[in-house]
């Protein structure tokens, strides 16, 4: 993945470009006309809605904050109550996420991000 340069040629040989949402439409003009190139943006559904709906961006992924609240709260409760200590291998129940296991360096995998596309983007407001 790369970022098309303002000073680069009109056709940049890319498979995928990632750009801030505010630059998405402008940057689309720097991509090749072969139809094989793809553009994705870095923004929230509110930032990206226009680009998804007009076809500039097919889809993008981002964590849905509404899905992270419960696991975050349950992690805090498990830690505060002594159920977990943050050590690798510790387990606890994180609500709808089910059983979570603490990984290396205290990392907890919160699952896959939400994919936003033309079919679902209007269901989100953030």
Provide structural commentary:
With about 130 residues, the chain is of the alpha+beta class. About 25% of the residues lie in helices and about 20% in strands. The protein has three helices and six strands, in the order E-H-E-H-E-H-E-E-E. The protein has helices at about 25-30, 45-55, 65-80, and strands at about 15-20, 40, 60, 90-95, 100, 115. The strands form three sheets. The protein has a two-stranded parallel sheet. The protein has a two-stranded antiparallel ribbon with strand order 3-6. The chain has a two-stranded antiparallel sheet with strand order 4-5.
Task: Give short descriptive properties of this protein.
126 residues, alpha+beta, two-stranded parallel ribbon, 6 strands, disordered N terminus
Number of strands: 6
Structural class: alpha+beta
Strand fraction: 15-25%
- Characterize the overall form: elongated
Poorly predicted ranges: 1-9
Mean pLDDT: 77
Order of helices and strands: EHEHEHEEE
Helix fraction, binned, reads 10-25%
Question: How far apart lie the N and C ends?
Answer: 26 Å
Estimated radius of gyration: 19 Å
Describe the protein's topology.
Elements: E1 16-20, H1 24-28, E2 38-42, H2 45-53, E3 59-62, H3 65-80, E4 91-93, E5 99-101, E6 114-117
Parallel strand pairs: 1-2
Antiparallel strand pairs: 3-6, 4-5
Outline:
The protein is α+β, with helices and mostly antiparallel strands and 126 residues long. It is built from 3 helices and 6 strands, in the order E-H-E-H-E-H-E-E-E.
């Amino acid at each position: 993945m790369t970022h098309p340069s303002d000073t680069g040629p009109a056709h940049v040989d890319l498979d995928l470009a990632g750009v801030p949402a505010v630059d998405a439409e402008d940057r689309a003009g720097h991509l090749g006309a072969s139809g094989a190139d793809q553009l994705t943006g870095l923004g929230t559904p509110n930032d990206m809605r226009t680009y998804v709906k007009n076809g500039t961006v097919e889809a993008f992924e981002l964590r849905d904050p509404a899905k992270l609240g419960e696991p975050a709260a349950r992690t805090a409760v498990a830690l505060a109550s002594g159920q977990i200590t943050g050590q690798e291998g510790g387990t606890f129940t994180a609500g709808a996420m089910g059983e979570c296991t603490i990984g290396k360096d205290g990392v907890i995998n919160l699952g896959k991000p939400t994919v936003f596309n033309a079919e679902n983007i209007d269901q989100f407001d953030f």
